[in-house]
Amino acid sequence: MAAAREQPALPAALTRALPLLDPAVREAPGFPDVRPGYLDLLGGGAHDGATGGGGPAQRLMRSRALPLVYERWWRPAWGRVLKGALAGGMRDEHRIARLLLGLTPGDGVLDVACGPGNFTREFAQIVGAGGLAVGIDASATMLARAIDDTPDGAVAYVRGDAERLPFRDASFDAVCCFAALNLFADPETALDHMTRVLTAGGRIAIFTSCRLQSAAGRTVEELAASRSGMRIFDRDELVDGLRARGYADVRQRIAGLTQFVGGRLAA
């Protein structure tokens, strides 16, 4: 019988993130599996890909080739096409994320559907050694790229279900979900979990789709959504959804077919 593969030493950030996991997750057989360099809560390859439906957009996110082009070409191009007049591109997205999250040194921040970790790494720099940045994604290939591009121990990466977060209640001071909520099969449940893991006064930042007001625009959106599997949110849907979940100071910025939404969870 072949000897069991030894587990490598836990990266520093992962060591600090383990107590934030739900106890049931920590009691699962084989926990913790950190052989890929991140904490793998899914195992195997059956779940490799973005959480969500089975349309072309989700299949693209599961592609093994995507991490090679995601950060440099596909993600910025997607933003330019949908945002229209928002000329700042990815730089503007990073700036708005920072404003909505209001991160300070020592904060704990969760990047939901973190992909190759381009936002997560920036959050880690802001919160510093006294804080903690955690990125969660279902894609093994995306996380492999994130590990390659992240200094050792700076970020805790977790391969898990980004819709049903595997963390304890009130684990983070801030939660970010950029360019992913529209791909989730159950975005309402995802928002419930993001709210659940926030501390009182915690901040949320979302970048996702937004429905146009014109009848012609809505027709085009519905056709694109049906063919791609992407969800198009109504203009007030997320604002109302955050307020119903107890958020205050809810802010929204609409740009083309996209929107930025943020708020602070009331104490």
Fold and architecture overview:
The protein has an eight-stranded mixed sheet with strand order 1-4-3-2-5-6-8-7, with helices on both faces. It has one domain: Vaccinia Virus protein VP39 (Rossmann fold, 3-Layer(aba) Sandwich), CATH 3.40.50.150. The longest helix has 18 residues. It is an alpha/beta fold.
Brief write-up:
This protein has 267 residues and is an alpha/beta fold.
Percentage of residues in helical conformation: 25-40%
Largest sheet, if any?
8 strands, mixed
Low-confidence stretches: 49-53, 65-70, 215-221, 223-228
Radius of gyration over all CA atoms, rounded: 18 Å
Principal-axes shape call: globular
Question: How are the strands ordered across the major sheet?
Answer: 1-4-3-2-5-6-8-7
* CATH fold annotation: Rossmann fold
User: What integer is the average pLDDT?
Assistant: 83
CATH homologous superfamily descriptor: Vaccinia Virus protein VP39
Topology:
Elements: H1 12-17, H2 23-26, E1 39-40, H3 56-62, H4 66-83, H5 89-101, E2 108-112, H6 118-127, E3 132-137, H7 140-149, E4 156-159, E5 172-178, H8 187-196, E6 198-209, H9 215-228, H10 237-244, E7 247-255, E8 258-265
Task: Provide key terms for this protein.
single chain; alpha/beta; Rossmann fold; eight-stranded mixed β-sheet; 8 strands; 37% helix; globular
